[in-house]
Amino acid sequence: MAFTLEALPYGLEALEPHLSARTLDFHRNKHQQGYLNTLNTLTEGTSLQQETLEDLIPKAFKDPAQKAIFNNAAQVWNHSFYWNSLKPGGGGDPADGPLKKALLQKFGSIGTFGDLFKKAALGQFGSGWAWLVLSSTGDLEIVTTSNAELPLLQGQKALLTCDVWEHAYYLDYQNRRVDYAQIFLDHLINWSFVEENFLAGGGR
Ligand code: MN3
Fold first, then answer.
1. DSSP for residue 153
2. Regions in the chain scoring below 70 on pLDDT
């Protein structure tokens, strides 16, 4: 069975004015759909299509012959995780609870977390992703990855991601990644998704 995409958790216009329907349409229906189609072509007629992305991605990463499969599988997963990291009316402070407590413990304030996350997003040279993760020792960390790479490869549990490939923001913000990163923090983060991941990863 071929790989498929889950439905977007909101409509194409739902994140306006922060991310336009045009951006979401291209990003979802051209970029992510393109990765999915390529992944299905590359794995057609093989047992790889029986696997979950979470199983396939680390194995393909270790095999130089499966570089293209890795890239496309990881980009499908990363984008699905990104859609869930966003919501209309999101951003700002998380609700009181275990995640907020852990963020305050680690970073001192949500503002400091935001400054460091933005700095990481801006510091990722070229294409990639900024993440909040739970490390293998249960510590909150801000990390970045290049191109299609993702925290799973380092044994980290992804909690939140911001796509910093230019296609994520160019139509709305052109070269101004800094404006996009600020909007992400102020208006887009789906904190309840982040907290779900935190608790599922054993965070407390
Ligand atoms: Mn993207």
1. G
2. none
Q: How far is the CA of 96 from the centre of ligand 1 (A)?
A: 30
- If you count them, how many residues does the chain have? 204
Supply 181's token pair. 């990163």
* pLDDT for the residue numbered 173: 95
Contact 151, 143 (CB under 8 A): yes
Nearest to 148 by CA among 169, 128, 124: 128
0.90 exceeded by the pTM? yes
For the stretch 81-111, pLDDT in tens is 999 999 999 999 999 999 999 999 999 999 9
Distance 117 CA to ligand 1 centre (A): 18
Phi, psi of 56 (to 5 degrees): -70, -40
32 Cα–ligand 1 center, Å:
7
The closest of 160, 167, 165, 144 to 193, measured between CA atoms, is 160
Cβ pair 74, 68 in contact under 8 A: no
Distance 121 CA to ligand 1 centre (A): 14
Structure tokens of 48? Answer: 């790889």
